[in-house]
Design a protein that fits this description.
alpha+beta; 7-stranded antiparallel sheet
């Protein structure tokens, strides 16, 4: 007998799987177009217009071929140029510095998070659901394989929820303050940070990159065959988006980036393919027993990844009721920082090592 999502007892995955089942045709269509370097016809004119307006303010030369001509009615047929400046790699290394591994000591549980400014770390609510976990939690930056160049020493930071703590199970995020220095005196601000901006950063079919710590391993990136697939606007599932790319347990809380290394989503669930009985299927279309599922999780056929949109996270943070005036002031300062000139410049947010 196959193991079902209900048997796993993961309510987040059950809800995500239902949302994905309701969107399987749109996901398949978007994935087909993405593999051909095209924006999906499921994309809306309104979102394309916002994207064009946002990118035209400071468009890079290699983006010119990807701009939409919204006056021709050919929005769904825009090719994406795969030629990138070599600086794309340098920018990616900068962007990855702000991503850290979260470990709940003594539990074997890991997650991922990233800095968003003013000593604040963003991750999933299901990774850090309560401030009582602070004493057992370590956030490590620089946990990376280093076969080339000068090795760096990983830096461990502690949570400081008394300074700032905001969690939201509906949007599955936790925003929490970290210590200003590591246990060895490394300053937290040396790792940079990422802002959360409003819409206009990506279109369905565009490539994404997911920087993560799968199962607590050294930092990795999902880059190949990774596409932004579909997104809903003005629906009950407005806060979610779906994309391809490999993730594993421990990847929850990872930033999902566009080609300009802007955060477009907070990753929170990989969604497995299921049959009519809600039983998990492997890559060969066969049901998986509980023992096989636990022994060989890599065999699961994942339909898509689900994340929470950066624009919706921003709105939830902006509108959150914070009873502590000091924390409310920190939140307001964070939003102002995101909207400042520094919030628009990747280089400005990452000090020279």
């Amino acid at each position: 007998m196959g193991i079902s999502l209900e048997h796993l007892g993961d309510s987040l995955m059950e809800a995500a799987a239902k949302r994905v089942r309701d969107r399987l045709p749109a996901l398949a269509k978007s994935k087909s177009f993405a593999r051909r370097g095209l924006v999906s016809p499921t994309e809306t004119t309104a979102r394309i217009t916002r994207y064009v307006e946002a990118t035209s303010r400071a468009i890079l030369p290699e983006r010119a071929a990807a701009r939409a001509d919204i006056t021709t009615g050919q929005e769904a047929l825009i090719g994406t140029n795969d030629l990138l400046s070599i600086e794309f790699l340098e920018a990616g290394l900068l962007a990855a510095r702000a991503v850290g591994r979260i470990e709940i000591m003594g539990t074997g549980l890991f997650g991922t998070g990233f800095l968003v400014g003013d000593r604040l770390l963003l991750t999933n609510h299901h990774v850090l659901p309560a401030p009582t976990l602070a004493g057992a939690t370590v956030v490590t930056f620089g946990h990376e394989e280093q076969k080339f160049g000068t090795p760096s020493v990983p830096a461990d930071f502690s949570l400081e929820p008394a300074r700032f703590w905001l969690t939201d199970p509906v949007h599955d995020f936790t925003l929490v303050s970290l210590s200003a220095q590591s246990d060895l005196g490394v300053p937290l601000d040396s790792f940079g940070w990422h802002p959360l901006h409003e819409e206009g950063k990506i279109l369905e079919g565009h490539p994404v990159a997911i920087v993560q710590h799968p199962q607590g391993r050294p930092k990795t990136i999902a880059l190949h065959n990774s596409y932004f697939l579909i997104v809903d606007n003005a629906s009950p599932d407005d806060q979610f988006c779906w994309y391809s790319g490999d993730t594993e347990r421990g990847s929850s809380g990872s930033p999902v980036f566009n080609r300009d290394w802007q955060v477009v989503a907070l990753h929170h669930k990989a969604v497995p393919r299921t049959n009519s009985r809600n039983e998990i299927l492997d890559k060969f279309g066969k049901t998986m027993s509980e023992a096989r599922y636990k022994a060989n999780p890599d065999l699961v056929d994942y339909v898509a990844n689900e994340g929470v949109r950066a624009s919706r996270l921003r709105r939830a943070i902006v509108s959150a009721a914070l009873a502590d005036p000091a924390q409310a002031a920190l939140r307001d300062g964070l939003i102002a920082l995101w909207d400042s000139p520094k919030g628009r410049s990747l280089r400005a947010r990452f000090p020279a090592p």
